[in-house]
Write a structure and sequence with these properties.
There is one protein chain. The protein has 20 helices and no strands. The chain has helices at about 5-15, 20-25, 30-40, 50-55, 60-65, 90-100, 110-125, 130-145, 155-175, 180-200, 200-215, 220-235, 240-255, 260-275, 290-305, 310-320, 330-345, 350-360, 370-385, 390-405. The radius of gyration is 25 Å and the shape is globular.
Length: about 400
Amino acid sequence: MSSRRQRFAERRKACGLSQEEFAEAVGVDRSTVQRWETGKNGPQPWQRPRIAKVLAVTANELDALLVPDAYAPPRPPRGWLAAVPTDGDDEFDALELARRVSASDVGKETLRRLETSFDGLATAYPVSPPQALLQRVRRHAAYVSHLMDARMTLAEQRRLHVVGGWFQLLGATLHIDLNQQHAATARLRAAATFAQHAEHREIEAWCYETDAWRVLTEGEYGRALELSRIAQDLAPAGSSVAIQATAQEGRASARLGEGPGTYGAIDRVQRMSGKLTPRKGTEHHYQYDPGKALAYTATTLAWAGDPAAERCAREVIARLAPADDVEKWPRRVASATIDLALALLDGDRLDEACDAARRAILSGRIVPSNHWRALEVVKAVETRRLPEAPDLREAYQGLRALTANG
């Protein structure tokens, strides 16, 4: 008869999945899958529905794959608790719960350091190359996964679920930036699972908002609109994710040509962000900076064909890029410069539009998920048969090649 290791691994292989592919599909690290298959530990209850779906088995069939050989019921803990009569299940469960509440192998300091590390990574996001930042996020997410099997209090377990959800969410965002759609989807599912178990509506709302951006970059504007509205329903009132999801609604509406929805979303973003106190210093990706409102307005108006996009884009550039060195631009400036190019094209200011597009492309600050926006400008210039078109196309191809080799 097959051992537990053989049964679980054989089923995975029968589904045509390597350990790495299976880990990505269920939102864990490969080392976690290896521990499952060697029998060192088993999946958490909240992970099992996803595993069963990936392996195409029922819950009972999954239990059969995971049950250890020569299975025996666990022994009661040593010490005074071992003397408790076991004929009263309710009493035993209550005592076991008390033991879990007071025992921990994780600790508050470990959790505090993880939370601080996440804030640091989220702050580095706007100015860091996605691939480099993703490596750091992966290491932290793997460590959270390692801690999932440790002994901890219920309060610590919730904190671990919350910080684990944040790491998975940031990882998903970076995968989207890199156009790694399958990995992004897997991480979003993992983040949502963490959020649901921690009952953390903010992270859950961010999952929908992030997915709205993902599908918007793929041209699914109706789906993006739907997801952004779900995110707003989940989001705590006045929260950063509520504002960001509203901004996504405006961008999706603009791509769909829905004028009232576009301008209504812009107005709501400005009202909500106007109540926030601007922060000094660095920018945290999941803490809405009122300055973002202008950048999102510039993009939304550019997509709506509104001439006011030019003024908004120029103001964003003036605020965030006073220097002329494009290599020092934050990512938001590159996006605003593309918005400026689109607005200038609509106004038939062709030379200025081509110059703005070239500067944005050569900045190196356009992530793969935004290449399509730069390509829109390139194609518009080519359609008009402007003399700058070949040079602009060459710069764009260089951007894609640089990203592929990076």
